[in-house]
Amino acid sequence: MADAVSIRIRKVKNNVLLGRKQFIVDINHSNRPNVPKKELQKKIAEIFNISDESTISLFGFRTRFGGLKSTGFGFIYKNIRLARETEPLYKLLRNNLVEIKKTSSKQRKEKKNRIKKTRGKERSKIKNGS
After folding, report:
1. What's the whole-model pTM score?
2. How far apart are CA 48 and CA 76, in angstroms?
3. 3 Cβ partners below 8 Å, 6+ apart?
4. Alpha-carbon torsion 50, 56, 62, 67, what sign?
5. Given Cys at both, which of 19, 31, 94, 125 links 82, Cβ 3.0 to 4.6 Å?
6. Which strands sit side by side in the sheet containing 6-15, from one edge to the other?
7. In the chain, where does the domain assigned CATH 3.30.70.3370 lie?
8. Distance between CA 18 and CA 51 in Å, rounded?
9. Could you count the other beta carbons within 10 Å of the beta carbon of residue 82?
10. What confidence category does residue 2 fall into, taking pLDDT thresholds of 50, 70 and 90?
11. CA–CA distance, 109 with 88 (Å, rounded to integer)
């Protein structure tokens, strides 16, 4: 138990409009330099009795000067759909909730110029890739 980590959750708010719980996480990690977010997600899922860890979003962690303690923020969404609607794209990519199709820059520019030339239903077809 030399690598024991204690987690304290405070200022829990239930945000009904965005469908999530918001809180501050305090972590004491005396014999470790830091704690990975995946490990924190598992421990917070145990605390709140959540089966799906991907609905937990942790961010903004700062380690205190001298180590031993870190503080950050967390959201727990009711379901993955709400998380995809409200979370920014970079956080969704971190939690593997969305994938981006990789295309070459030339293909993106050609698509952009095709969209410029069309109007109406054809334009939306090109945008959506149908």
Report:
1. 0.70
2. 9
3. 31, 32
4. positive
5. 19
6. 6-15, 20-29, 68-77, 56-63
7. 6-94
8. 20
9. 15
10. low
11. 24
User: Average pLDDT for residues 41-60, to the nearest whole number?
Assistant: 88
At 105-128, the pLDDT tens digits run: 998 898 888 888 888 888 777 777
Residue 127 is encoded by which pair of tokens? 């945008």
The domain 6-94: what is its CATH number? 3.30.70.3370
Q: Give the DSSP letter string of 80-129.
A: HHHHHHHS-HHHHHHTTS-------HHHHHHHHHHHHH--THHHHHHHHT
Q: Which of 43, 10, 4 is nearest to 25 (CA)?
A: 10
The structure tokens listed for 54 are: 């991907």
With the CA atoms of 42, 45, 46 and 47 taken in that order, what torsion angle do they form, in degrees rounded to the nearest 10?
120
